[in-house]
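Explain this record to help learners:
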Amino acid sequence: MFELVFPFFLLVFFLLASIIIWRVKARRYISSESVASAYDAWTQDKLLERLWGEHIHLGFYPATEKNIDFRKAKVQFVHELVKWSGLDKLPKGSTILDVGCGIGGSSRILAKYYGFSVTGITISPAQVKRARELTPSGLNCSFQVMDALDLKFEDGSFDAIWSVEAGAHMNDKIRFADEILRILRPGGYLALADWNSRDLIANPPSFFEKLVLKQLLEQWVHPNFISINEFGNILRTNKNSAGRVISENWNSYTNPSWYDSIIEGIRRPFAILSLGPKAIIKSIREIPTILLMNWAFRKGLMEFGVYKCRG
């Protein structure tokens, strides 16, 4: 009975939230500039940083551990992806490109704990500014504004490519794969994580699922979602990967992040209240999308894909 009632409840909640809150113009993907504008706004209002710390991405929750702190889970995610992808085998001083670096949380971990020389890129000027402010002098990190679909680096420039939850904002997934693999040196490492849908051709979405996907695309500036297998095949067929690509679904490890991202507002109410009334409205606005994300990932409509390869 719950399985039937919950989607209906969620649909009602979605409709009410649309009327009350989502009358604010949706964050639809129009171009790379719309992505930059959205992340500039999220960075400048400091709401996400106050609530979630230096990492916007999801956390890692091992099945054997309970009651993991939300922010610690985000840091744990970085270490788990490093270990799973094999980046920990690289020597200190190896050059890493962090594609979609946000405000530099992962870049700083890669530089501090693993001794890498990290270049972070994002399409958001506000994120670059904040990443530079948060990075201590002497840490081997640099940040610059750059479009991941038009990377300004020579072929084979980096020992490894790191990218977490950036690809969903790319309107051309093949071009995205071409660019990141082009600048990866032969024999280099790729560590990539992203939001994917299930295979929507083999398993078409229901009417309700189409509504959910529409909101997930339009509220957080996503042009489209593709499946783990589809993006994995794009990577495998690229001439620079030589087919050596492995992918997995980390839904079970990351799903608790969605509820925790809401609960964090209860744990740290001053983080919102200190930013004034507008922050409260902005916080409420995000809750319906987070709940829809949680439902979509829990039901398998969405999947959290991780990818690794040796170039």
